[in-house]
Amino acid sequence: MLHTNEQLKYTVASKGSLNVLNYQQDQKRDSQLNQNNQYTTNPIINNRNQLKILDNDVEGQSTIENIFALQLTIEKLLLTIFLIIISFGIYALILRNSIKLRLKSLYIKCNKLSDCTHFLVQNIDQTYNIVKKQIYKNKNFGFENRHLKYEYDEQNYGFIPVYYSDVENHTLEQLYQKHKNGLENKKENILYKKEKYGLCKIHIPIPTLIEYFLQVLTEIFFLFQYVSMAIWIAQGFIVFAAVMILTSLISTLVNYILLRISLNKLRKFANIQIKIDVYRDGKLIVLDSQDLLPGDVFIYKNKMMIPCDSLLIQGDVLVNESTLTGESIPIPKLCIKQADNQQELFNFKNMKRHILFEGTKIIQKNEEIENLGVVLRTGYCSYKGQMFRSMLYPKAIEFEFYRKGIYFLLILIVLALIVYFIFFYKIIQNLTIKLSILLLFHSLTNMIPPAVPVMFSLCQTVALVRLGYSNIIAVNPSKTVVASEIQVFCFDKTGTLTKNNMDVIGFCDSNIEDLITEVPNQIKDEKQKILLDAFGTCHGVYLDDGEYLGDELDVKMVQFSGFNIRKGKECKLEAINGNSILKVIKFWEFESQYQRMGCLVQDQNGKNFAFVKGSPEMMQQICSKNTLDNYKFQEKLSMFANMGYRVIGFGYKELSQNINLKDVKREEIEIDLIFLGLLILENKLKEDSAENIQILKNAEINCKIISGDNLLTTVKCAKDSKILDPKDNIIILNSLKDAFYLNKPSEKVDIIQLFNSKQIDFKLGITGTALIDIQQMNNQQLLKNILDYTTVFARSKPEQKTEIIYMYQTLFNLKVGMIGDGANDCSAIKQADIGVSFCEADASFSAPFSYQGKSISCLISILAEGRCVISNMIECYRHYVTINVYKYAIFIILIYEYSNFSSFQLMYINYFIAIPLMSFVSLSKPLKTLSKIRPNCNLFTKENALCMGGQFIFGSACLYFCYLHYRQQDFYQDIKSLKNGVIYNDQNIAVNIIFLATNMYFLVSSMVYYVSMPFKQIMYKNRVYFIWMLIFFIFSILQYLFIDIFGFKIFKFDKELYTQKIFLAQQLAIVLIFIILSIFWEEGFIKQRFIFSKITKKQVQ
């Protein structure tokens, strides 16, 4: 089942999981929890019958926190069945919606696993599932939760997901020997593995219509409708009750259709069905991809979409991981035989260079040998499967508006009860005991607007559709609501604020003097030649169908070097420039945490070289001190960085000709290198970045950059993009001992002393290293001060990006957004309250919002849509609650006449006026600009109390004055009893005038609550809403003025009323006076006092 809510709170699991950071305090807490959960009773159950989940990396983010053993007892089951029968199924509906009651009614706590029949599972999102205990063919037992099977591990006394663990505790060499012939092709072995691991596919369950109706129509929201329907029927409003349930069924059907569309899209993304060549017992067979089993050995082919997580045991391939990371660059994967340490134990987390993940596509394979892989994880155990589990079961949202809305309704219910008992004496005099009791329940159900969740869902769904028209793919409707609250937005630099494409400005050789803008025709300096050789070989560029594939920086560098590359016969690739032929024998790809990459190269003369490139700061650390002038290095680096250039450092080491390059390890070469020089590139800002940043800043969105680039370069980008103002005093914080004002680099400052002196007139740019130093001081106030005044975070590793967002969320209780374009941003995007990625190919699954363009203007659309959505939701809520208050006032007034509306009149005010208007509000589009004002979601404010309270009073007073005016007429009909003594009268003048006034006020209440500026378009631009309101408003006035023409029989107007045209004109005058008062109260007082005054103040500021 696809859930639509997402929890905003960050929760750290008490076990390892992918993409979940364990910070120092959380690790300490988790360690204490794990110690507390060591149970003395055999097997693992303590006196709270709590079980343990073992550490694993299979669950992803949708983890289990706790498990409790339960036993279903026959006695409780029989009693429950009896209660369901005698309550005509009502008890079953209550059980369906209360897991606490279900636990008490059916289960007892169990202290022996052998006796338990079920488990209570507590998920990380604090939801609970009761799952049945399963006995497996291997005599072990477990359960299934959220598409993952779990089994009990007797050795470690805990539960663990069922996955292929045979690769663990094996060296790489042992893995190859174990799997080189594939699985044993015995029928019983294959059947056992199929039963244990399931099919090799991510099956997205789509409920049937009957299943969906049974699930949805038994939820608590519909229980209120059933109660309301029963009360209406008991009071004689059978037709209205029938229309009520029919409308609910239709809305449920529409939601089902939308759900099927959404799930079918997910199924399409998840579906991989191809034919696979598989080795079993050393023999080659052809299988459907869904029949692959963990341990199978299969052949990789060009353009193949990988159907599982697999380990490359022979050959080497290039893959595209854009479906997982959003980056369409080739990623080299090497077989485990090429790993430096063949005795290393297999570890899934640390073997990514050897693992091909499900959903990735092979660009190029080694044509000289057969490229073989071992199936590791399939279905929901795979990395892609973990992403789909997170999408199918997003964390529940905790949104203040929802919580306050419920509290507000509870207050109204209490007030309704007070009013009921104030008029109780009159009620009991005028009505039968049955109707008096029904009216009590009717009063309570009137205060609970059952269609509000549907209206909220509609507002969010319409917003997603609008975003889709703007090429923004949104996968979680509730995130549009969260977007309205964003206070901080963090930006990656390269590819987000700046263009992806780069231009090479030139290079500096090892002398670090003049900038050389072109490759000389004749190179006399040997080091300069070696530097150009490094340009041509130390990169991740590959040739595919005559086209260079790789990171833009690498491609530009190769083109600048003058080298041409081609696939090598006995090596990774060959770089050719005239008579120079360089063979890349071994390659270590760039890794963010190391800030460098390297390769081993052999030239045409048999000389061996090791080339390393990386960030200038990193190259300065690993190059021999006597090979570079530190003063010149820092001077040039600062100069280029202040100009906004991207700077890459190079170093090399010449190796002996007698060694086997394939045996050389990375750590052997990345030390005591000879410095070669610097490559200078320009990464230009996107044309509209500064403009869009200014819009965000004008809306008081705090903008920050979190980048892996050089600090000075990133500060220059922040200035160019207007994240930093020209007048800002900027302190560069490389470390606590290395801090200075940007405009006075020679003068060091003491950042701690500055904060202590309260002389805070600056903004900070900080490196990842400095941030670590500050965190290790355990001075939370200093950390908060640093974070509060930092605008630029540079040289940040992927995990640091995530941690920075986490700290803003927790230390400052802020809603934080993140936008990025690369694999190193994925974790931060997931951590943020809303995450945005660019997806020029397939949608990136890491972000709730993916933009199919290149501009950050998408943020304006997302935030504006969020503010529009919450504004629409607030208006729907206010309107719905207000008309329910009016209904309550109507029933109290009409008690004096032993009367009530007819079924058609009830249908008319609900399904011709109220529901359509609330639905059409969702069509209101956002303004294209962002205001400093945010929608006020707090219903317990002076603004909301005066706003809704005023409308309650004016509307109810209007109805009452219309009724009093009628009582003063000589044609007043004094009704003394119920119709036939048992049901309400529904055709008299009292009912008619209240009905006519209600029509007008139902329309007006929607109109006065409509807030356009500063969140959404003016009312008349929502054409459907405006035309609908106009038609019914005019029709309502015409019914007053020309009742003989527009007073259709179906409305059941009293015959006397057709003759009282002057009276009706007076009634219209009363209604219009109160409508004018209502509009003046809202437009002239509330909006002027609480909205427009704020806008004016903000504009002045």
Explain this structure to me?
Helices cover 44% and strands 19% of the residues. It is an alpha+beta fold and 1101 residues long. The chain folds into five domains: 42-162, no CATH class; 275-392, Distorted Sandwich (Calcium-transporting ATPase, cytoplasmic transduction domain A); 410-471 and 869-1100, Up-down Bundle (Calcium-transporting ATPase, transmembrane domain), CATH 1.20.1110; 474-497 and 686-852, HAD superfamily/HAD-like (Rossmann fold), CATH 3.40.50; 501-656 and 667-684, Calcium-transporting ATPase, cytoplasmic domain N (3-Layer(aba) Sandwich). The strands form seven sheets. Strands 19-39-38-37-20-31-36-35-32-33-34 form an eleven-stranded mixed β-sheet, with helices on both faces. The radius of gyration is 35 Å and the shape is globular. Residues 1-47 and 1095-1101 have low confidence and may be disordered.
Quick synopsis:
With 1101 residues, the chain is α+β, with helices and mostly antiparallel strands.
